[in-house]
């Protein structure tokens, strides 16, 4: 594997030495061992990117993006639906005053999320010792998912309850 | 006969390639160690140079911890969010060629995408579903980071940057939702911006600033269009740059559990 010396900015650059050091064994736990980014990481990037591209392409080929009638301020659709990622908020809005559901709760959630790393003083990363943190986050997550699913699929005219397998009002 | 032509073409191609490959121009573009360079050999030194001598060095170190490349740890969710963002940028630029942000043109232009623009509906569909997927993948990425406790020191600040990225992703999605100017768009945005009217004290002002008017009109389209195609992408790219830089400076992907 003889190669011509490489000169960079007037200096000879030494190669990276492969393999084990000249004396002694290297004792590195397997997980901490490092691997070359090229090819190992870049190849994974490429495969992941292609897989995502394929999925988006397939969805785009088989499902058309919605386009309703032209916007008309005189005709209010019933129900009026926000896109799915705000459906949870909209569901909340149907139960509480807009100041609470639209401003205070989302504001507190955002600020709380930003403050989380400074509030959680436990340095341990293992699930077993993180019961409080994991429980709190999971409660928020599940509550939000449930609200989103209800707002997205289980609400119909006048924000009344519907069964999505009977009447579908979800909007994407 | 056909074979003869194929051979001739092959010969020509090889000879042209021979001249290009290794020419001064090619050599000046490709830095030492590039796999596209003439005479590249797969050696550990060249593998390092692929990153180190390359614009990629801004993003990746030469080596990473083995577990950091494990799909089962990150599930690639941050990277997938980023890739979707790139895909949305590309498809979005295509859509901009055919779209004018006015109350008169917007709806007609979007409609025309599926009737008179080659690949128009495919690209619109990719942009729409890609955007939904990005919101989803960013949420999943955040959950993955939480359950790994990867926001703990020294990564606290990168979590904060992440929350800002999540907000920007939602804002990008929502500003785009108005642009087709159909009933779905108008009323979803009406619901959303009515909420802003309840901001204490400055509610009406905030709502007016968002809408460029007292209700959702053509002025709102222009405003949200500029935010959607210029302002928010610009801001999110800056925060992404900080985010990726911090992943590296905080010691790479957090260790295995
Ligand atoms: C546009 C949105 C986002 C993009 C493109 C993005 C991208 C990335 C990428 C590529 C990584 C490397 C590891 C991985 O893929 O998991 C990463 C790590 C990280 N992200 Fe994000 N991210 C985004 C949003 C967020 C959000 C919403 C949060 C949290 C609120 C967050 C917090 C973090 C943290 C703390 C790390 C370090 C994780 C570790 O070391 O294990 N990011 N991000």
Overall SS class of chain A: mainly alpha
Query: What is the name of the CATH architecture of the domain at 76-249 in chain B?
Result: Up-down Bundle
> From the helix content, strand content and strand pairing of chain B, which structural class follows?
mainly alpha
Fraction of residues in H or I helices of chain A: 40-55%
Whole-angstrom Rg of chain A: 27 Å
Present as ligands are: protoporphyrin IX containing FE
Textual characterization of the structure:
The complex is a heterodimer of chains A (172) and B (257). The termini of chain A are far apart. Chain A has four helices and three strands. Chain A is mostly helical and 172 residues long. In chain A, strands 1-2 form a two-stranded antiparallel ribbon. In chain A, helix 2 (84-93) packs across helix 3 and helix 2 crosses helix 4 (131-153). Among the domains of chain A are: 32-63; 84-159, no CATH class. With 257 residues, chain B is mainly alpha-helical. Chain B has a domain at 76-249: Cytochrome Bc1 Complex, Chain C, CATH 1.20.810.10. Chain B is built from eleven helices and one strand. Chain B has helices at 2-20, 24-29, 44-52, 71-74, 77-96, 106-116, 120-147, 156-178, 183-196, 203-211, 218-249, and one strand at 63-65. The model of chain B has no long low-confidence stretch (mean pLDDT 92). Chains A and B meet through strand 3, helix 1, helix 2, helix 3 and helix 4 of A and helix 3, strand 1, helix 5, helix 6 and helix 7 of B. Bound molecules: protoporphyrin IX containing FE. Protoporphyrin IX containing FE is lined by residues 74, 76-79, 81-82, 138, 141-142, 145, 148, 150-151, 155, 158-159, 162-163, 165-166, 169, 240, 243, 247, 253-254 of chain B.
């Amino acid at each position: 594997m003889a190669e011509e010396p490489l000169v960079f900015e007037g200096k000879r650059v030494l190669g990276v030495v492969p393999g084990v050091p000249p004396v002694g064994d290297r004792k590195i736990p397997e997980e901490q061992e490092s691997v070359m980014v090229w090819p190992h990481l870049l190849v994974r990037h490429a495969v992941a990117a292609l897989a995502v591209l394929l999925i988006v392409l397939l969805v785009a080929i088989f499902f058309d993006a919605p386009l309703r009638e032209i916007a008309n301020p005189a005709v209010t659709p019933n129900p009026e639906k926000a896109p799915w990622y705000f459906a949870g908020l909209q569901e909340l809005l149907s139960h509480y005053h807009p100041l609470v559901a639209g401003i205070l709760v989302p504001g507190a959630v955002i600020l709380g999320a930003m403050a989380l790393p400074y509030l959680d003083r436990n340095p341990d990363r293992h699930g077993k010792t993180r019961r409080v943190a994991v429980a709190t986050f999971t409660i928020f997550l599940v509550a939000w998912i449930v609200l989103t699913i209800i707002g997205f699929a289980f609400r119909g005219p006048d924000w009344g309850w519907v069964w999505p397998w009977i009447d579908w009002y979800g909007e994407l | 006969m056909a074979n003869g032509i194929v051979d001739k073409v092959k010969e020509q191609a090889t000879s042209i390639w021979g001249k290009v490959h290794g020419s001064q121009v090619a050599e000046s573009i490709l830095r030492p160690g590039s796999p596209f360079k003439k005479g590249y050999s797969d050696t550990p030194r060249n593998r390092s140079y692929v990153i180190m001598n390359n614009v990629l060095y801004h993003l990746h170190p030469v080596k990473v911890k083995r577990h950091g490349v494990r799909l089962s740890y990150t599930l690639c969710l941050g990277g997938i969010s980023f890739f979707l963002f790139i895909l949305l940028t590309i498809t979005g630029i295509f859509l901009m060629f055919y779209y004018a942000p006015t109350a008169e043109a917007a709806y007609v232009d979007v409609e025309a995408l599926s009737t008179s623009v080659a690949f128009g509906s495919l690209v619109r569909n990719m942009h729409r579903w890609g955007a939904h997927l990005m919101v989803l993948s960013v949420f999943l990425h955040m959950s993955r980071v939480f359950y790994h406790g990867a926001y703990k020191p020294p990564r606290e600040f990168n979590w904060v940057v992440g929350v800002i990225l999540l907000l920007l992703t939602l804002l990008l999605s929502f500003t785009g939702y108005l642009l087709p100017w159909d009933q779905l768009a108008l009323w979803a945005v009406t619901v959303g911006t009515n909420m802003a009217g309840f901001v204490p004290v400055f509610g009406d002002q905030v709502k007016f600033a968002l809408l460029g008017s007292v209700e959702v009109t053509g002025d709102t389209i222009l405003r949200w269009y500029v935010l959607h195609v210029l302002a928010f992408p610009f801001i999110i790219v800056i925060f992404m740059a900080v985010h990726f830089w911090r992943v590296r400076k905080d010691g790479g992907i957090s260790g295995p559990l």
